[in-house]
Amino acid sequence: MALTLIVCAGLGSAGLAQSVAPSPKPEDPAADSAAAMDDTVQDAHIPKSTWDMWDIGRPHPLQGKGAFGDHDPIGLAAGKLIPTDCSFNWSDPDSHKLFCFGSQASLVYFLAAPKENEARAEKGWRTLKGATGS
Q1: For the whole model, what pTM was predicted?
Q2: What pLDDT digit, counting tens, does each position of 42-75 carry?
Q3: How far apart, in whole angstroms, are the C-alpha atoms of residue 22 and residue 3?
Q4: What is the pLDDT of residue 49?
Q5: Can you tell me the distance from the alpha carbon of 84 to that of 79, in angstroms, rounded to the nearest whole number?
Q6: Of 8, 16, 30, 113, which one's alpha carbon is 20 to 30 angstroms from that of 83?
């Protein structure tokens, strides 16, 4: 019985020695979010907006200011007129044109090759506007 207690006491002291060592400081999950919020690009050509999801039904502040009559450039490149409210948008840093997108997926796809996609959208816009007579 005494042997068993000594062995248990030996294990207990080894466990105690391990628990005394300082544990690494846990990562702050809010630190990444705070850094991301600080790392925003403000384009002087695009007014700051207070529009958010609670303003459904109210026109987006950028509506009516986008290229191609606020139609989705990826839709135009595919030969479709997809109207947008400019909720998803991107401003070209070179030309300062504002492009409005119908979805976030469309915006991401456009940004993979913005110049090429803009040229495709321009071609589609001319074709579609010629076909509608506007």
Answers
A1: 0.55
A2: 555 555 556 566 766 666 677 778 899 999 999 9
A3: 31
A4: 58
A5: 15
A6: 113
- C-alpha distances (whole Å) from 103 to each of 10, 47, 58, 106 are 64, 21, 18, 5
Distance, CA of 25 to chain centre: 30
Three-state secondary structure of the chain: CHHHHHHHHHHHHHHHHHHHCCCCCCCCHHHHHHHHHHCCCCCCCCCCCCCCHHHCCCCCCCCCCCHHHHECHHHHHCCCCCECCCCEEEECCCCCCEEEECCHHHHHHHHCCHHHHHHHHHHHHHHHHHHHCC
Q: Which residue has the higher pLDDT, 2 or 82?
A: 82
- C-beta separation of 86 from 63 below 8 A: yes
